[in-house]
Amino acid sequence: MLVWAIREEGAKHVYQLLKGLRILDLTRLLPGGYATQLLADLGADVLKVEDPWQGDYMRWMEPHFPGTNESALYWGLNRNKRSIALNLKSEPGKQVFTKLLQSYDIVIEGFRPGVMEKLGLGYEQLREINPAVILCSISGYGQDGPYKLRSGHDLNYTAIAGSLGLTGVAEGVPTIPSLQIADIGGGGLMAAVGILAAHIARQNTGEGQYIDISMMDGVVSWMTMLFMQQAAKDTNLKRGEALLNGGVPCYNIYQTRDGKFMALGALEEKFWQEFCKSVGREDLISQHMSRTPETKAEVEKVFKARTRDEWSEFFADKDVCCEPVLTPEEVKAHPHVVHRKLFTPLSHPKVGMVETPANPIKLFAQEQSEDIRPPELGEHTREVLLELGFTPVEIERLGI
Known about the structure:
Elements: E1 14-15, E2 22-25, H1 29-41, E3 45-50, H2 72-75, E4 81-85, H3 91-100, E5 106-109, H4 115-118, H5 123-129, E6 134-139, H6 154-161, H7 181-205, E7 209-214, H8 215-222, H9 224-231, E8 251-255, E9 261-265, H10 269-278, H11 293-303, H12 308-315, E10 322-324, H13 328-333, H14 335-339, E11 343-348, E12 352-357, E13 368-369, H15 381-387, H16 392-398
Parallel strand pairs: 2-3, 2-5, 3-4, 5-6, 6-7
Antiparallel strand pairs: 1-13, 8-9, 9-10, 11-12
């Protein structure tokens, strides 16, 4: 078993770089939540606008924290935000939302195309309220095209974009990725980039922007290296047979004596040479880019000679690009992960301290503050209404 020394570190992860950026987050689930958490971690004031009945669906999805009906998943996407409960189909709800747009001039939503217009909150309608508004819409297939109203999930978007078909072993079935490539990469990250670009442009022009983010579009963009291989007439662009998906022995995954795995990434010739020399198989040096099953079988024999942890120790001081394949529990204890403070503790009122993946963006010489736990549904409704200038009596009349 791998044993690492763990250092306790304090948690300060919220930067003030985006202080003054104010965002209304109408999204649910993963893509929008990830985008706005990135921006909140950088100092943006993110206000979740949720319906009063169930709010963000992510709040209730399994698995739940022990003894509660609260989702652990929600806690991984919603730190450093506030929440207001509004019925956007009601007049009082629209009245409050209209007032919010005077100061929260960036809106992000994840409904199907056309829903915002039905609510009376489409881009042209928002522009009438605030001409400088930025609206970012995240959807599966975008705001136009024959698939714009088609339902889907991450698996569907990666399937159509071509990523899924190239994932897995040769001659086997495509393998479902363990993380949501389209939701996070195609939706969340692209939305964050689009919002920041529109904000910078607005500072120069004073004009707002409508941003159309398609999760499938984003996956196609992430496929750039593979599509360019195809453009070069690369005949090895197949599942388990390409350069970076299992087709060569120097860049592959190998099982160890104890049934665990090592990831060998000796792509450059110098790393492959060092690997072959260190394991006493100089005869394999010339087989760097071999695509024969015999060469891979020889490397498999090498790794079968030791356990994963023995190989980890063996390669610790060798420059060969070979690392153990870790479980999520092992990741948290890894000394480099600990040093980089990649998890942040948040205090849950019922279950105590909860560790969530931290902000991955490191900024130096920037003011930081403590991370704040995710908000309960509508937790800041009264607080926000008072900030908007509503009196206690007016709030009671609104019935919100």
